[in-house]
Each structure stands twice: as C-alpha cells, then as structure tokens.
Amino acid sequence: MKIGVISETLQGERRVALVPAAAAKLATSGFEVVVEAGAGEQASFADNAYREAGVAVEVDRRALLGTADVVLSVQPPHLEDVAWLRVGAATISFLQPATQGAVVEALAARGITTFSLELLPRISRAQSMDALSSQASLGGYKAVLMAANRLGKFFPMLTTAAGSIPPARVLVLGAGVAGLQAIATARRLGAVVEAYDVRSAVKEEVKSLGASFLELELETQEGEGGYAREQSAEFLTKQRELLTQRVAVADVVIATAAIPGRRAPLLVTAPMVQGMRRGSVIVDLAAESGGNCEVTQSGRVVEVGGVWVDGTTNVPSTMALHASQLYARNVTNLLQHLASEGELKLDFEDEITRSCCVTHAGQVVNERARQLMRAAAAP
Ligand code: NAD
Q1: Rounded to the nearest whole angstrom, what is the distance from the C-alpha of residue 179 to the centroid of ligand 1?
Q2: Bridge-partner residues for 3, per DSSP?
C-alpha cells in the first residue's frame, strides 16, 4: 500500500502530516511511503531527513496524487487536487465538513474514501489517534506564551530590591484540552489562575493543576459525550454577571470555549473588555469559530481601549515541529487501525471507522458530516 504525503497549500499552514520518524515506522511495517518535495520544510524536516528515513521524495505533486493509495495531509485536500486522486484511493486529514462541503461532494463523486480526524469518537480506544486533542494541547500552551509575550508584566510573583511584583492573574475560559494545557502553562510561569467551564465535571482537574474553578450555582450544563451544550437564558445572565467581575480583574484571558459544530459561545462582551485594565491581553483561541470575545477579529491582533485582543488562527501551526510530530503519530495510529493487515479493510461495525469515514463508494456516508454540511449551507 502506497502512502502519499502532500505539501500543505493553505496560507500560514506550516505543519506536515508525516514526520520522518513516523514515515520510517510505516516503512518498516511494510507500507511504501512517498513525500512531496518540500512538504516538511516549514516544520523543520528537510527532504533529506525523509530520504534518510527510507522514504521516497516526489517532486511531481500530480504523480503523487495519482498513484497513492492513501493521501495524508493536515488541511483538507484542495478541490483542484481531488481530480488528480486515483479513483478508489483514500485520504486522511482534518476534513472540516462544515466549511468544505464542495470538497466533500467532489471526493464522494470521485469515489474516494475519506476520513475526517475531527470526527473521531472521543473514546479511550481512539485516544492515540485524537489529533483534535493533540493540536488543542499545543494551542493552549502557545496561547499563554503569546499572552505573556504581549503583557507588559511578569507572570510570577517577584520580590526584588526594587520592590515586590504581584503575580499576573490569568482567567481561562473553557477547561477542555486546550484550556487545561493553558492552565498548566500559566501556572508553570507563576501566574494566579482561575478557570471557568460550563461542565462542572472538570472542576477537579482544574484544581489539581493549581487553579481555582469559577462556579455558577445553577443546574449542570453538560451535554452529550462529555461536550458542552447550549445554555438557558437564566444561566447566561448569571454567567455574564460572574464573568464581568472576573474579567475585570484579569491581566490575561485565554478563551478556549467551544461547542462542536456550532459558533463558539460569546463569553466576553465589549463592555467587559472596556472594564479591563489597559495593557491586559485576551487570546481568543475560538477566533476561527466566531470567537469567545465580542471584539475579536479572526486572524488579527487588535487593540481596543488599551486592551490587546489576539485572534490569531491556526495557533498549533506556529509550533509546527511538535504539532507535526504529534499529528503524525495520531494519523499513523489511525492508518494502522484501518489497515491492520497492510491494506485498507473497512469495518463499518467498528465505531472508530464508522465515525470518521465521511465518503465511501461514491456517497457521503457520514450522518454527522451531512448535518454539518447542511447547517453550513442553511441561510
Ligand atoms: P471543545 O474544544 O469542544 O470545548 C472546549 C471547552 O469549552 C469544553 O471543556 C467545553 O465544556 C467548554 N465550553 C463550551 N461552552 C462553554 C461556555 N459557554 N462557557 C464555558 N465553557 C464552555 O472540547 P475539547 O477540549 O475538544 O474536549 C472536551 C472534553 O472531551 C474534554 O475535556 C474531555 O473530557 C473529553 N475528551 C475525551 C477524549 C477521550 O476520551 N478520547 C479525548 C478528548 C477529549
């Protein structure tokens, strides 16, 4: 079975789907691996590193697309690339069906079998393949460094000959994978950290990282499968009151709250931003899905009344080396699960295969992907 790794074409995407070490592992498991020339360059993996790992480097992208049995990438295949894929081949990527409806339809029409990493089930058996988690973790870590870099203050408490410095106060909104990593990072830098999440189940994890957990004394707001759900009006009013107070005293807000397949919840309003001290920093990791902060501009850093609001998108890509290494492990584990005997054998009784396979045998076979595509197409 021939595995093809293509260069990413999306502007600002520095990651590569397979790093040399993972490619070598696949090669020793009997797979033939071919990497497009320059694919690992932006993640600090030169073509020679792949060659040394026993992997072929192909200059001709179309030849690679046309001969690979499985094409790996981080971003979804480009519409123009779909036409070059071999009929019956497979692809694995973050397919993003909600925004890539045309690509999904084209992949189905061409008879490609497509796997979408963000649709993997959040079950323990799939943890080693969970690229959403590995990348969110990088994002949470880097968001704190971005905030620390912009903040004109120390994070730790210091006692110096020139006087004492109090620790920075960091508020983390959303204590999922990214949020927990942000809490751990801010704590390591010495900040005093508070965290808020609608799922009270995360309270103990937050506390074990040395942060305090902000709680609303209302009914529990947990949805299905360990994810959040949308909240009641009463809840939202109380939430706003609580956050108005806590945002006002924060030096840094790291916003990571998300609801799968929906616009990110709006947690930090424009008046809350006005209530922050000048020089404070908000890093909104939810920028791409609408933002947790009302004044966030996706892909930009803006200054609003002296407060910096960072809406940088694709933060994991800024740590391309480790992001690629972890992504490569996730994708390799999924590949080995799907092709345990050296060729793709799809068992739709298996929850992992069923959940993340989006197109197969000329059809969009995934109900969740269809829902996301319909929701995105609705006016
Ligand atoms: P996510 O990115 O969808 O959301 C991030 C966080 O935002 C979540 O904790 C969510 O509760 C929170 N949130 C949503 N709306 C909010 C609001 N209005 N106010 C405050 N917070 C809000 O989630 P994620 O980080 O990808 O994962 C969520 C959870 O799924 C994890 O914490 C974990 O429990 C579970 N998980 C399980 C596995 C596994 O078992 N394989 C893997 C990964 C995650």
Answers
A1: 9
A2: 33, 70
Output the residue whose Cα is nearest ligand 1's atom 24.
176
Alpha carbon distance 193, 182 (integer Å): 10
CA–CA separation, 309 vs 307, rounded Å? 6
State phi, psi for 96 to the nearest 5 degrees: 50, 60
Measured CA to CA, the distance from residue 5 to residue 19 in angstroms comes to 10
Closest CA to 132 of 352, 306, 316: 316
Using CA atoms, how far apart are residues 93 and 131, in angstroms rounded to an integer? 10
DSSP state of 211: -
Summarised one tens digit per residue, pLDDT across range 160-217 is 999 999 999 999 999 999 999 999 999 999 999 999 999 989 999 999 999 999 987 7
SS3 43: helix
pLDDT in tens, 301-320: 999 999 999 999 999 999 99
* Greatest alpha-carbon span in the chain: 72
Tokens of 167: 């620790």
Distance 182 CA to ligand 1 centre (A): 13
Of the pLDDT bands very low, low, confident and very high (cuts 50, 70, 90), residue 35 is very high
Quickly tell me which residue has 């109380």 as its tokens.
238
* 258 within 8 A of 174, measured Cβ to Cβ: yes
Q: What is the CA radius of gyration of the chain?
A: 22
| Report field, pTM of the whole predicted structure over 0.90 | yes
Q: Could you tell me which of 356, 357, 366, 352 has the C-alpha nearest to residue 125?
A: 352
164: which strand partners?
Answer: 159
**Token pair for residue 84?**
């070059």
Known catalytic residues are: 122, 127, 130, 133, 227
In whole angstroms, how far apart are CA 269 and each of 90, 131, 305, 339, 352? Answer: 44, 31, 13, 48, 39
Amino acid at 35: V
